[in-house]
Amino acid sequence: MKPLIASALFGIIMMFAALSVKEKKSFTIMAALFMAGLTAFNIAELIALINGGTPVPLFNGMIRYDSFSVWFNTLMSGVGLLYILLCGRNIERVGQHVGEYYALLFFIFCGVNLLSSFSNLLILFLGIEILSIPQYILAGSDKRNLKSSEASLKYFLMGSFSTGILLMGIALLYGAMGSFDITKFNFMQSGVNPMALAGILFLIVAFGFKVSAAPMHFWTPDVYDGAPTPFTALMATIVKAAVFVAFLRLFMEAFGGINAHWSLVLSIVTALTLFIGNITAVFQQSVKRMLSYSSIAQAGFMLFAVLSINATGMKGIIIYSVAYSVATIGIFAVLMKLKDYTYDGFNGLAKKEPVLAFAATVFLLSLAGIPLTAGFFAKYYVLTAVLEQGTGSLWLVIFALVMAAISVFYYFKVIMAMYFKKGDTELATEITATDKLILGIACAIVIVIGVAPDMLLAWL
Amino acid sequence: MLLLLLVLIPFLSGIISFFFRSESVKGWALFSTLVTLAVAAVATGAVQNTSLAYKLPWIASLGANFHLYGNGMSIMLALLTAIVFPVIFIAQWNKPLPEMGRFTGLMLMAQAGLMGVFLAHDLLLFYFFWELALIPVYFLCSTWGGEKRIPVTFKFFVYTFLGSLMMLAGVIYLYLQTPTRSFDYDMIRQTGAALGAFPQQVLFCAFFIAFAIKMPIFPFHTWQPDTYEQSATPVTIVLSALMVKMGLFATVKWLVPVLPAGVAYWSDTVMILSLIGIIYASLLAMVQSDIKRLIAYSSIAHIGLMSLGIFANTEIATNGLMVQMFNHGINITGMWLIVSMIEQRYNTRNLRELGGMAGSAPSMAIALVIIAFANIALPLTNGFIGEFMLFHGIFQSENPNHILYMVIAGLGVILGAVYTLNMVQKVAYGEAKTVAVIKDISKNELLGLVIIIALIIILGVYPKPLLGLIN
Lengths: 460, 471
What we know:
Chain B: It comes from Taibaiella chishuiensis. The structure holds two protein chains of two kinds. By secondary structure, chain A is an all-alpha fold. Chain A contains 18 helices and two strands. Chain A has helices spanning about 1-20, 25-50, 65-90, 100-115, 120-140, 145-175, 195-210, 220-225, 230-255, 260-280, 285-310, 310-335, 350, 355-370, 375-390, 395-420, 435-450, 455; strands at about 55-60, 65. In chain A, strand 1 (about 55-60) and strand 2 form a beta hairpin. Chain B contains 19 helices and two strands. By secondary structure, chain B is mainly alpha-helical. At the A-B interface, helix 15 and helix 16 of A face helix 5 and helix 6 of B.
């Protein structure tokens, strides 16, 4: 409960601070401190939960903080801190209203908090809205840039559309079950109410929109490409991970018993997402656009966790969220240091800035799922989770692995440009020792999780 | 502890090498590899009496351990790895590459990965090292080498990575079948052998594709000649003398005992593919004019014979395979060293432009002849005993077609003699095509070749130490 209040409060303080604080840099320092505070609140809650035992339902059982949700919140606020440290200078450069951007970031964390701990469909809806609305604004925050405004409008229209579908799904479920409380849903194996099934289908579509699963993915490349890069890094990582956790929580707790009715639909969505994300990413010219397709492809892997509906899947989504978020934020941070966002913009980076190139290589290897990086265990856990359910999904696992091999094409294109092509990369900003240090820390996180994934699972 | 050192020394000294800016790194690399060689020698001595093991808990929740295990077979390959690396550094001493620090670091990382693959006794750990060996080699092949190296290496990488991913699917499936969720070798072996025939057949494919691409056997070999041709000589040696053994060794350790029913089902198919590979590669080797490509194809033929030996599934064939793996590693290292010397001195690898080396550089010509003899397994060279045991084993095989297989494989040996001697004749004899004065072997090159040739002759005359190691 405290972290939720804290993040709302921090957001409001940031907003009012914008009235008096003039120096842009101080906003970043403030935000970093607040985010560290939020992480501390989360850790305190986690420790209380570990010592105190059972999770207490709040607000008549509408919110339930269990160890999974609190641990996820802790990790995401930690990743958020890393995000501010890595992208802070670029956030300052987006526009005039730096205080507001950070305020919106903290409101997004309210949404993250609700989405990881909801126990009631109304809170789910609330969480998704709190998460989405700040993003619409952030996507359009570079007001002088037409592409940014286009991204914002597109995102807003598509987002509201999917919210409508989500609401429709919730309404149908309420009609069928007579409750919003997901713990009170008890389906019979035979003869599930068709209205409830329709509701579940609507929810799959709505969540598909939010996590950019194919065929509901088409807004993603334009929005991610058009939005200011630091905010793309946010949307593609922490936000997406939070929606996935909500997806998993809902489908595991509420609809886990009747997965025979929806797993085929979700399997097809997964296969399509993997296919479209990976194949389209191969043909991109701009690294930023490639990364938005890669985020679709990675969403395909995260869908495995939802498909699996077991404890390994929960572990998988935790590892995947952290591994994917850290690596993606890291690669975006490197990208933002460059002038040219095409592959050629990376030519010869290894000669000029070896630390930057090495960090980018580690992040890309992690995204490709090479052992010794966090990305390997992320993929390992979600694939194991789905195979634990039986060999019925074996075709999907094989397909996913072939797609993972294809992903090497576009991730390694960047590595090849950095190391083996001659060129003179133009840097957009100077790279300070602090930048290198933080990138080094991010690399260390990726490698440490890649060697000892247990660290992330100890609290589950 | 010895086993841990075998992995750790190259790994750590590799990391340190990245920070060297000057050429003094080659001294460091030589020192590190010699220390590794010493440890490997001690381990070889220790393994005569008892097997070695080193176990640390790793990922408790998955039941994975950092478990290294050395018996005669794995220590022999570790020893081969430990011998080949210092020889490379000695022979290449006066041929520095640009960015020597990075080069050395990657080479030593590759050595750590190879050691790990040969010693890992835990399936997940094995998979880790399998990939860990690949990544440095990818960077090595792409940074140093011929003009077309980048696309060629990428093809190689995608091939092997796809194979690894197929293996990963098999790993996860096998793991989920183990009763206590463990990656331990014994547990995996029991579980795999107890599976039904159909799952074993499918799993066999998942694992074998990964191994077959690494070896490579026909039709998974298409990356190999290009990659060997384009990479720098030290990397080519690592690829052909050592990485190829990863596939063979993995088949012997992780496939034949783990999936017996799968092996029984597919062995005819694999043996026929191996035979096709032997004949096809030998024929192609005969028409090559580039020496590097010729040796690359000859290597495919040799590997084909070895994989035939694995699937003959008799004890003597397996022992012969082990001996042959060691000796092939030694011989092909020597072969590449000579080729790189030729290329450096004559500025060409084309057989039509070479000739008369016996007159201009007699020591090199002698070395070439000896290594070529070992390559075609003449008696008194080390190649003979392994090939003899392999044929003996194939003859004893219970496979109904074993005689036919043996005859075809024998044809491959004859073809091998044809193209190898043809190459020797064109390079060493005939009229000298270049007028420039050719410098004969330098001291460090001589030292490298002497080590190789000494091993060829000693193990050819007295192979007992090798055979003792296997039993």
